[in-house]
Amino acid sequence: MKLEEIINDNKQNLTSTDMAIWKYILNHNDKMRKISIHELAKECCVSSTTIVRFAQKLGFDGFGDLKSSLKREEPLEKVHSNDILTALEKFYSKTWSHLMRRNYDNASRLIHEANRVFAFASGYVQSNVVQEIKRLFFYDNVFIYDIAGRDEFYSVLKTVTKDDLFIFVSLSGESHWVTEFSLQLQLKDIPLISITKLHENTLASRSTENLYVFSEEFQVNDDSQIPFKSMLAYFLLIEIWYVNYRIYVKKENEDKNLM
Q1: Deepest in the core among 30, 46, 77, 89, taking most CB within 10 A?
Q2: Which residues of 153-189 are buried (b: 16+ CB within 10 A; e: fewer)?
Q3: What is the pLDDT of residue 174?
Q4: Residues above pLDDT 70, as percent of the chain
Q5: When comparing pLDDT for 86 and 146, which is higher?
Q6: What was the pLDDT predicted at 7?
Q7: Domains in the chain, ordered, with CATH?
Q8: Smallest Cα–Cα separation from 196: which of 165, 174, 164, 166?
Q9: DSSP state, residue 122
Q10: Mean pLDDT in the chain?
Q11: What is the distance between the alpha carbons of residues 72 and 68, in angstroms, rounded to a whole number?
């Protein structure tokens, strides 16, 4: 699991000091691969013991374990390449490998057990992702209702229970509506699955289950033009999740028949 995923999963348990340490790590990724615990403590104006406790809160044995995890991660940057197709091929391969390794059981359980499923998209591309989720799960009689905007969300919120489920699709996880809506769902303890790019974000930290994708930009021609951002990962994620969902449901039914 990527460090940013771990941060999102544990954000509720992190103090302001912990978040300050994380911000330093996030902004000095290359330096972190070589820095000592004493140097990091000095840079963050905390003790070495505080660094160790921060690492342990995230599930690591200590700072050395955390740093080893960082070293295994490949930073995602804007890609400049004379052979853009080769760069795309490498990105697709890395994305495929990441998505195939993750476990979808929790997300599948939530949607399988939900009484009703609602979905909200924070933009145009996100809306296309939601439509694909609706199309795929429709084959298994899972009907997903779109939330069109603020008024509709608050109207639905009056009737939802803990047996219902929301799915939010957002690029950043920080847009106004997703942060406002996710807070309301958190206060009512309503299950929420978020789909965002892999980085620390408010939506993911408030979600019951987070599904992440890599985000990468490609400079097709020169730096004066807007870079091309691949969105394939979102649709690939949905297809892999759906197939895993069908496997999950089949296994659940088989287990029930054995009882």
Answers
A1: 46
A2: beebbeebeeebbbbbbbbbbbbebbbebbeebeeee
A3: 87
A4: 92
A5: 146
A6: 80
A7: 3-72 (1.10.10.10), 79-258 (3.40.50.10490)
A8: 174
A9: S
A10: 86
A11: 6
Higher pLDDT, 230 or 179: 179
| DSSP 3-state of 172 | coil
Q: Alpha helix locations (H) across the chain?
A: 3-10, 16-27, 29-32, 37-44, 48-57, 63-72, 84-101, 105-113, 124-138, 150-157, 176-187, 202-205, 232-258
Q: Are 148 and 181 in contact (CB under 8 A)?
A: no
Q: Which residues does 179 contact at the CB level (< 8 Å), separation at least 6?
A: 173, 202, 203
- Nearest 5°: the CA angle 122, 182, 237 is 55
Is pLDDT above 80 for 70?
no
Question: What is the residue whose two structure tokens read 């929301």?
Answer: 166
Residue pair 70/32 in contact (Cβ under 8 Å)? The answer is yes
What is the Cα–Cα distance from 133 to 136, expressed in whole angstroms? 5
